[in-house]
Design brief:
The chain has 214 residues and is an alpha+beta fold. It has five helices and ten strands. The strands form two sheets. It has an eight-stranded antiparallel beta sheet. It has a two-stranded antiparallel ribbon with strand order 1-2.
């Protein structure tokens, strides 16, 4: 039904509103909500209350560290369950304060919340001495993964390779790659460590931010 001039509308309390005032009110309210969302190409979406299985999941994550930011692209098509768990871990803030407590030059940087990280000798023996493993997936430099052993136990650590490596498919699920911040990864890789490859000065993850696009 069209709006005719002179016909007012009654609202709660008996107040009468003219059609023109009503139209202006509705338009202003809609415009305000639209502007609050921003342009779809510029807005940084808030995924804090989003189930990645029900909406378009984020394709990127920014890992902010005490050395700078590292942007990673997520390989959801190849590792959907691992990526979904990574997203949920980001939303719950589980990576905040996580330390890179294993840094092995020309190999990897390893962030974990475990009090006692996995045996460094185990990692180096499989990575540096070319132990014969499944060759279905090659790990290049700046690939993002998580330890299969920790993932199976319910925890989630972060591994970023710093050089092309022999295959680690037996031990690591690769679910992304660094697309920006390679220099930050290299800076972390070059820090002084002790004989157990633990940085002498703590390097931690400050926060993680999920994005639909860069």
């Amino acid at each position: 039904m069209g709006l005719r001039g002179g016909s007012n509308f009654k609202v709660t309390g008996g107040l009468e509103i003219s059609p023109m005032v009503l139209v202006v009110f509705v338009y202003t309210s809609y415009r305000s909500k639209f502007q609050s969302l921003g342009s779809s190409s510029e807005v940084q979406h808030d995924f804090s209350e989003v189930d990645p299985k029900k909406v378009e999941p984020p394709k990127y994550a920014v890992i902010s560290t005490s050395k700078g930011s590292i942007t990673v692209e997520l390989f959801r098509e190849g590792s959907p369950e691992v990526v979904d768990k990574f997203i949920q871990s980001c939303l719950k803030g589980r990576f905040k304060g996580m330390l890179f407590n294993q840094v092995i030059k020309n190999f990897m940087i390893h962030g974990t919340s475990a009090n006692k990280p996995e045996s460094t000798e185990d990692w180096t023996s499989k990575g540096k001495h070319n132990h014969q493993l499944d060759t279905s997936l090659k790990h290049e430099a700046f690939m993002l993964g998580t330890s299969k052993a920790n993932y199976a136990s319910g925890s989630f650590d972060l591994i970023i390779t710093t050089a092309p490596l022999s295959d680690l498919n037996e031990k690591v699920d690769v679910f992304g790659r660094v697309v920006k911040g390679e220099d930050v990864v290299q800076e972390i890789e070059e820090v002084d460590t002790d004989e157990h490859f633990q940085p002498k000065t703590p390097i931690q993850i400050i926060d993680t931010t999920l994005k639909l696009r860069l």
